[in-house]
Each structure stands twice: as structure tokens, then as C-alpha cells.
Amino acid sequence: METIKITEVGPRDGLQNEKTILSTQDKFEFVTRLVESGAKHIELTSFVRKDRIPQMGDASELAAMVLPKFGSQVHFSCLTPNPKGYEAALASGFKEVAVFTATSESFTKKNINMTVLESFSSFQPIFDNANRDGIKVRGYISTVVSCPYEGKIEPSKTLEVAERLLEAGAYEISLGETIGVAVPTEIEALLEVILKKIPSSLINCHFHDTYGMAIANIKQALTMGIRSFDSSAGGLGGCPYAKGAAGNVATEDLVYFLTKEGYETGINLDSLVKVSQLMETKLNRYLNSRTYIAKKNVG
Amino acid sequence: METIKITEVGPRDGLQNEKTILSTQDKFEFVTRLVESGAKHIELTSFVRKDRIPQMGDASELAAMVLPKFGSQVHFSCLTPNPKGYEAALASGFKEVAVFTATSESFTKKNINMTVLESFSSFQPIFDNANRDGIKVRGYISTVVSCPYEGKIEPSKTLEVAERLLEAGAYEISLGETIGVAVPTEIEALLEVILKKIPSSLINCHFHDTYGMAIANIKQALTMGIRSFDSSAGGLGGCPYAKGAAGNVATEDLVYFLTKEGYETGINLDSLVKVSQLMETKLNRYLNSRTYIAKKNVG
Which Pfam families match (chains A, B) (predicted)? Predict the structure, then answer.
């Protein structure tokens, strides 16, 4: 069976979009249980300003608990928006960091207060230092199909940004369909343009399930050769653009889908469901992954 | 743009699986709002024993309110499990009825207390009378991919049942993936067998979103030529086999998907969202269609 790389983004993309701020100890327990469930790639945290994103305020402390214990068996990454964040990530022992930009000028401006071009200049020192330090860099691109401010984004624009990130030294490009509005024909149109220039092995897809289209989009990407996807346990996190709506595609839904389609994920679904049950308790809210709910109630 | 036939099953398959029993007046309001939103095919009720399924106990009363008002502009159907139910449906003014069986002996036994073969004998008088009366008959087949008691069902078994229903006089076969466990490769395998013998124009797909696979399965069926799908407003109804889990694919998710994929449905999504909001109030529970939730909160 062919193996799919799943990057569990619950601890970062998930928790960053939850109202309840977990203690570092709770996060450690979450990550421990994810590792026990078979997660092999985990986006752990983000080195950002604590006053801006308090959910990620304990990045160094969390890394100090997690990396010595699990760093040899699991790939951990973290978001580094600037060289200062990169240095903190390096000091914390990360072997992989991620930089992020978007295809849309308005989104990049609102999200990181830069133009897309400026975001590249700001990354360059991170790529230079990472190259020197032997650290892998992942490049996130947000709003690859549609932007909440600009609407439809041309695939050629996404390709341009992806190529620049690869030239700068990224080892993988994560295509983020940030607002979860895309349908399979749009993913097909995007990937047709991307895959003419970039091998599928360098591309990851990061889908949100806001309108319930994530699994259909993943099927489309899978058909076109993509073998790397992001997801969050239980569908943790939400959509900042639609209160109460679904955010990242749930790892349970993804693992259920991939396993039944004949792929290997390395993740034990029953064990993962128990992790999400723990998170429901800690966050004091119901998680809305379809597979999670069905499994939780059927056993 | 190509048009897709959507059969709205909320008033029957949806409400039958809700704990709260609505008044006939509330059901009439529901159906009125569905019609105003553009629904053209509505499964209205079921002529069953009131002591067995109290949610459908007002079939004749509801029909008497709905059919004279909307019967000329919308196709209404109802489930008729036996000749007695058929006579009641005919007396109520229906021009279309539906009979149901399954591919699995265990399921048919538990569900309608017959073998699959016996279910055919029991339908024959309905088909005979419908033929005499000029009434259309739709044939539902449950558990087309998997049975909660028997597990995996062979596509050839579903084909056999579908062919018998067509020979008996059904104008359309609805393939029901009753427990919502199937993934696209299974739908592909099923439809490959079915469509070798039966034209796609005679096949409807009825998917449940229990594990979040419904839209991906619909995309698969669409790719293979299916142009008729069942769904329920807001995802009304649930899964009798997993408490709290999703049931029928939500009409909102289906309409969102089809519209963005370039198909015509005739249904106004914003208007439909308001119908589901009304139903949330009447049923006193949150509906869990992804598109519904996103639309409700974004506007």
C-alpha cells in the first residue's frame, strides 16, 4: 500500500483558532496522544508575538517538553514569520520551520502587513540561515483558489508564488485553500497549472472543510498525484471568516477516507478518536468531524 | 448549464429520523418554504403504520394541505410499503409513489420483515395497480455498498435487485448508501457494474454523510453520468446506526457543490438556508450541514 504523508496541524493551526487557551501541560498531553496514535508529522507551534496570538505564547516551553521526548521519532515543525522567530525555533531544537505568504495582496497585507513581494524579502534571511543551519523550510501559500477580500485567484499567480518559494529553498509547498470554498474542478484547474512546472512530490494540499468540500478536493488532488495533506484532529480550529463553521479538514475524516481508498497513513483511527474526545473536554466544545462523531457514538 | 434533479427528502427521510414530531401545520410550512426555495421534487411522507412511525402519522392530512396548493408545480412522492399504503397514497392524490427494498437479506428482514424475494412479491400488486392508475413508481434500494449487519455488499447483488425493480416497472432506481460508509472507489466499482446494464438516466444516488464522504461520492457519481441525487435540507434526519451522526447529505452542501461545479439546480441557496434556520427552531436542535453553518454565520 502506498503511504500518504499527513501533517497534523491541530496543535498549531487548530489551537490557534480556538477561543480557549490550553495550558502547556495540556498541549503536551495532546501531542503525546497524537504521537501514540501514529502521527509522524506534527506542526507544533508558531513563534509569534504573544500579545498578537496568545494561543501560541508558550512556543519555547512546549518545544522544550516535546522535542527531547519525541523529536527522534516524529517530524516536528513550527511557523516562523520572521528571522527572530527563526532564531527562537532554532534555539528550541526544531529541525523544520515553515514560512507563510499568500497569493493575494489584500490577504497578505491584512495577515502579515506586507505585500507578497515584501514577504519574500522578509523570508530570504530565514532561508539563508536555514540553509546554513541544515534546517528544512516548508512554504505555506494561503488563499490559493479564492481570497476573502479579492475573490477568485488565478492558478498562474499561485504557481508564481510556489516557484519563488522553491527557488528560495523550500522543500515542500503547502497549497492552502484557506477559506474552504473551492470545489474539485477548481482544485483540478489549479493543480493542472502547478503540476506542469512542479513535481507532485513537492506539493502538499491544505484544505478546509468550511463548505463540506474538503474530502472531495482531497480525492481530486490524490487522483492527480498529490501524496501529502494537512489536517487537524477532530477538525480542531475553525474558520476565522465564518463563526462556528468548520476549519481544517479533520484528521479522522482524512484517515477514514484514505484507509478505505487503499492507502496507508500510519494513524490508528480508534486511538485518534480518543484524542479528540480528550480535546472536547479540554476545550469544552463539541468537535464536528463527521467520522469522529460517528466513531465516538458507535465505538 | 446542465440541470441536476434533486429530490428533497427532508420532509420524509429527514423528519422520520428526528426525535421531535412536528405538527402537520409545521410540516406544511416547511414544504411551502422548500417550494419557494425552488425544490421541484419533494418526498413528502410515508404511508406507514402510525404506531410504528409516529413521525409520519399524518400522511393523508399533510397531503390534503400540500397537493392541492403545489401539486401542479412540484413533483411530490411518498413511500408506500404495501398495497394498503398505495391505496391511501392514491386517494390522497399522489402521482408518484416509492417502494423500498435492500440488497441485504438481514437488513430487509430487520427493516421490513421480509426476504428480498418476498419484498418483490409484496411490491408486485403496487406496480400492477400503479400501471393501471398511471402512477409513477420509484424503487429504493438500501445498503447498496455496505450493510450494518452483513458488511460489504457485492455490486452484482445491487444490480440484480435494480434490474428486478426496473422489470417490475420502476421509472427510477434510487441507490441508497444507507449507512454512509462508502468512499468514491466503492461508488465507482458499484456504478461500473450497474451502468453496464442500466442507463445512467434511470439511476439516482442517495448518499448519507455519516463519515463525511457524501460530496466526494456525489462527485464520483456525477463523473460517471449520474444526474439525479437525493438530499435533505440542513442535513435533517440522522443516522439510526450512530447517534448524533450526520444522515442524508444536506441539500445546502449539494447545491453549493453542484452550482460551483457548473450545474443548474433551480434551488436558491440563501433562501434554503432560511428554511433550515426555521427547522432548527422547530426541532430545537442545531443542524450540521457545513454549507448551512457557514452561510448562516456569514450571510
Answer: HMGL-like (PF00682)
